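Progress note, sequence design subtask.
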């Protein structure tokens, strides 16, 4: 589309889960399928952006015309994002990054002799916060997956994480959010006067939700860079 506010912009997107190795055959992960992040990548590409998609392991094929960078762990995802962020106008963090990784990954397969075992975990880097706190950050868009008080947490994250836009996902409803083909969310941002604004996106296919998020992001980008 000629009137697209995203035309010619470099957009960097994270998607999918991350996998944190326990030993050579086991890992910790979560239920993200990558569908939401891939939908954003496909729609951003269709709206004329140059898209780089940094993705954890998924069953999905890269959308046509999108530069896919495949990663496994949170640290690899951060490294890939940092390698591509310099020329990005907009960064969208849609990945469900594992919050913790193993303190030490076993080099050999762990034997199952003991009745109980303990894994020591250490906190992973927050990719979105790392990027938002760079000296010259791209415009940052975050997701919030909450099960309660969604609006409250989202508005707080918007300010604390220095985001332009946040898409709040109520993941307590298992028919939307993780792994499903549809989603519903509420977008939060600050208008030019600094007031909090919000827009509810009713339940729809992830491609439709993705387009609405991108149009809002494009509008905010235009306001900031006119
Ligand atoms: O992949 P699907 O099956 O389609 O599901 C889509 C989704 C539910 C995963 C997606 O819509 C979504 O909500 N993604 C964000 C999930 C999440 O991890 O939210 P959070 O509240 O833990 O994180 C907040 C934000 O910080 C997110 O933008 C996240 O990408 C980012 N983050 C979090 C932790 C971390 N270590 N690094 C990050 O960048």
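Output:
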């Amino acid at each position: 589309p000629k009137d697209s506010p995203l035309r010619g912009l470099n957009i960097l997107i994270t998607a999918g889960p991350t996998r944190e190795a326990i030993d050579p055959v086991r890992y910790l992960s979560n239920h993200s399928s990558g569908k939401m992040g891939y939908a954003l990548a496909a729609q951003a590409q269709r709206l004329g952006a140059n898209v780089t998609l940094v993705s954890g392991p998924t069953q999905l094929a890269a959308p046509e015309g999108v530069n896919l960078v495949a990663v496994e762990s949170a640290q690899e995802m951060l490294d890939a994002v940092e390698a591509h962020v310099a020329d990005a106008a907009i960064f969208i963090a849609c990945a469900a990054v594992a919050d913790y990784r193993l303190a030490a990954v076993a080099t050999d397969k762990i034997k199952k002799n003991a009745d109980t075992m303990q894994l020591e975990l250490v906190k992973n880097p927050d990719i979105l916060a790392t990027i938002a706190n760079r000296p010259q950050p791209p415009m940052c868009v975050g997701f919030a997956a909450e099960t309660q008080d969604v609006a409250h947490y989202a508005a707080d994250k918007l300010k604390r994480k220095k985001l332009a836009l946040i898409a709040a996902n109520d993941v307590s409803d298992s028919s939307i959010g993780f792994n499903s083909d549809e989603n519903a969310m509420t977008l939060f941002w600050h208008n030019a006067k600094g007031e909090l604004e919000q827009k509810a996106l009713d339940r729809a296919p992830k491609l439709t939700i993705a387009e609405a998020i991108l149009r809002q992001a494009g509008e905010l980008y235009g306001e900031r860079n006119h």
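The CA atoms of residues 146 and 170 lie 5 Å apart. Work on this subtask will continue into the next period as scheduled.
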